[in-house]
Amino acid sequence: MQNKPVALVTGANKGIGLQIARDLAGHGFTVLVGSRNLEHGETAAKSIGADARALQLDVTSQASIAAAADRIRSEFGRLDVLVNNAGISHAGEPGRSIAEIANSGRPSVASLDEVRAVFETNVFGVIAVTQALLPLLREAPAARIVNLSSDLGSLSMNADPSFPPRAVFGAVYSPSKTALNAITLALAIELESTGIKVNAVCPGFTGTDLNNFEGTRTVQEAASQPVRLALLDENGPTGTFSNEDGPLPW
Ligand code: NAI
């Protein structure tokens, strides 16, 4: 087993995940850059430096998840931080604008195939990856799990007519993040006695492929809170949902 702590960031070949991986490497972790496409993961890992390694990981494939878990155990012998970052905002043609995503995701017209595909990645993928890696995380001295959620998943915020983003609250992406929040809380409750801290975080509206680069925050700004939650000390919270301004309503 290696002495340096090990962190896995899913979907870290680009966007906010790549920045989280970069920042965690800067904080002394060996970072595993999860990527569906190994080549993209290797390019991303190389851009971070010697502390980063690519790890083939498709969060919708049980075979890929099992192989990744085996590799982490045999090659690194430990896992201290899991950042469930991989996510999709729709399952249609790449490059859709936010307006197009919002319109096709309205509850009156949303394709069930698309709802299922987005839940497969954003919700079931998180459950599957977390279950496969929990044995390793339980062995770590102070494991942390961080789930990349969104204020678009907050029922309380979107029930408020004065919350502008509610204009795109639909039946696809938003409820996938609501469900992810529920899973975060359930896992935090189950693991309370173990010292493993599980938190959900909203990185804010960030310019990435997820929103056709319409987001206004930088990936550096977006990564700061997930990284903070990955580095929590033993007095840090568990079972929370927050952004950089503090707790968010579920
Ligand atoms: P992005 O599209 O740049 O990155 C998403 C990453 O997930 C990519 O690396 C992609 O390859 C990966 N991914 C997708 N499906 C996967 C699968 N089946 N297996 C493994 N990896 C997969 O988007 P971004 O913005 O960096 O998103 C990261 C997280 O932040 C997502 O969970 C997203 O929902 C969340 N988020 C993003 C916001 C934004 O404004 N960009 C706002 C709120 C939350």
UniProtKB/TrEMBL annotation:
Keyword NADP: yes
CDD domains, per the entry: carb_red_PTCR-like_SDR_c
Keyword Cell division: no
SUPFAM superfamilies, sorted: NAD(P)-binding Rossmann-fold domains
InterPro entries (alphabetical): CBR1-like, NAD(P)-bd_dom_sf, SDR_fam
Keywords: NADP, Oxidoreductase
Record Pfam families: adh_short (PF00106)
Membership in a protein family: Belongs to the short-chain dehydrogenases/reductases (SDR) family.
Protein name: SDR family oxidoreductase
Organism name: Paenibacillus agricola
